[in-house]
Amino acid sequence: MSSFIPINIHDPTAPTPQNTPLSHAPIAQGLSRPTVPDITEDNEPAEDEEGEENADSAMQSAMLGLVQGKLAGLLGKSSGYIESLPVEVKRSVEALKGVQVKQTELQNQYKRECLELEKKYSELQKPLHERRRAIISGEAKPTLEEIKAGEEEEKKEDPDYTPLPEATGEDATSAIPEFWLTALRNHIALSEMITDRDADALKHLVDITIAYLPPKEKQPGFKIEFHFSANDYFKNEVLEKTYLYQEEVGYEGDFVYDRAIGTTIEWKEDKDLTKTFEIKKQRNKNTNRTRLVRKAKPADSFFNFFSPPVPPSEETIESGEIDEDELEAIEEQLEIDYQIGEDLKEKIIPRAVDYFTGKALEYEGLDDDDDFEDMDDEDDDDEDRFEDDDESDDDIPARRRGPPKRGGAADNVNPEECKQQ
Questions:
Q1: CB-based contacts of 325, cutoff 8 Å, min separation 6
Q2: Residue 399 lies in a domain
Q3: Where is the composition biased (Acidic residues) (predicted)?
Q4: How many domains does the chain have?
Q5: Would you call 295 helix, strand, or coil by DSSP?
């Protein structure tokens, strides 16, 4: 397609930095320097305008609250579809509910049999737990077979693992000091509960065991037992925490916690770690005499674990004796308490040595990976801000090392080709 150029144009070449005309372009002739008006009182918004804006904002907030209230009122309400179905179809729906009742009964039976299976294997593990307790306390020395099995397991995860040297002497102690205190402190939630004052008492913790409630009990559940040696804090040799399930499984097919029951700790005089004591002076208004009064205040402590929160009854909730904030706080405390009990049963007791060494921490929070965004799309310039760590991949144990990288294009380049380039 050809283009038409008027003959009165002397040079049809478009202006460039080399042939820009000396005269200003028409678009620049009518422009002037931008000016900023002076700030005076006349330019300030009037008070009535501000009042109108506030009124509009309040009106919008009120409308938003009204809409949200309407939507909240629709939750759980029927759309009318089920009610509009013919009678024969409704009868089929009721029949499905009847079938589901039988499915739920089988699910309850399945979960109870699973619980019995847990009890069976818990009993089978008791000799191993007793052996563990004896090694921790130093009552028994580990055998060469046990040591070799542990080293072989470590080599599977870390090929660079170096076997331990032979024992120095027959009389050397093999007891593991502060085993359970260290294991509990390596659990994220429990570490936040253990205070410095608690640590001295928990040094006397010699074992943690689990016992399932017998079948004769109306409610299924389990009991966690903390065994202590003689100490300066309390008289109890065993502190227990019992978790009870509801009789029927929940909607999702799992046992639902009902409540927890703790041991009453027999504290020795002035050794209650769940309280702090203050001494205050009081003056008698009539006689002007003073006296010293000792008052106790609740204190944060791991041993509050044995005084679990009590869920409010339905009557208390319906009567309004407890407000929503208090109810929410209690529910949060109960959830944390139940989770700690579950972790003790499923993680800490069966894998105590992993919590002692800290290996278990490598597997904590793996479900939270979705909370982090992929950083690969960020600028590579940020990498220059960080220095390379002296620790290479070869120095990292296999269980902490990432998967091996597959060979890319750079791995397939011929060195001779690089020289030619």
A1: none
A2: no
A3: 39-55, 364-395
A4: 1
A5: strand
